[in-house]
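Reopening closed ticket. The problem is back. First fold of the pair:
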Amino acid sequence: MKLILPYPDKNLNPNRRSGKHWAATKKVKDAAFEAAFYIARQAYNAIEVKHEPMPLVITFVRKDSRCVDLDNLLSASKSMLDGLAQGMRINDKYFEPITIQRGRDKTSSYTIVIIGE
């Protein structure tokens, strides 16, 4: 299944939040979680998801040509992955293996998540 999610907020980048109190990013994390949760719940509402490892391919698509570290993007997506798992009614430990990659779109930035292919 292919889901389109928002691009991770820059405030969730681990290099930007160093030394900040956890509450400084709580609203942004909650927004990322809720967006992923509702998209996954809508997509998986009528599907029985097996509780077994499923591959996850995450493509971070940017509208500009700056190269952002993939490990930072994955870290910034923790709340999104938690929201996906809860929306699918599974534990996120089943997202295995996880492949992360970059993409480019001249019009907008977003995240493509392909689950189970």
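Second fold of the pair, where the issue appears:
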Amino acid sequence: MMIIGMKKAYEATHFDVVRETVRGVIVDGHSIWMLYSGVLKDYTFPGGGIEPGEDPQDALKREVLEETGMLVSDGKYVGTYIEHVYDFYDPSKTLQRINHYYLLSPGKVNAQHLTDEEKNYQLNPCWVLIDDAMTLNQRLIESKTIVRDPYYIMKEIDVLKYLKEFLK
């Protein structure tokens, strides 16, 4: 496993919740396919949790299709970003989030199949320059007006920085 980065809000050997996810990195030229939230005002990578017994590549294709409507083939593993954070919604709980990133080729785009929560966030897939996504997310952190878990957006910034170098 290649570690892209790690954020630790604390040192721990026990976690109340461990969540393993897959994230799609879809690149076309200098642009990257990301989700923009009309409510949260941030850019995030498409992806989500791996269901018990589910193959990570199948989870990746399912999550990218659900969130963005894009049909993709198996991805090339890029790296993993691990977080040890307090639960944003219940600070008494500790989380370990293990996020696996895969490089994907763009595919045909169909309709999104968002959950009610994702619809409430007004998630819109779009092509964005890596620098523009980093800048917007960084300004959101600095403004202290962030609505979501700030560690989540710091992770996205770290991964975008890594990808900027990786994709050269």
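Update: turned out to be a display glitch only; the data is intact. The longest helix spans residues 150-166. Helices lie at 56-68, 116-120, 130-143, 150-166. Please close again.
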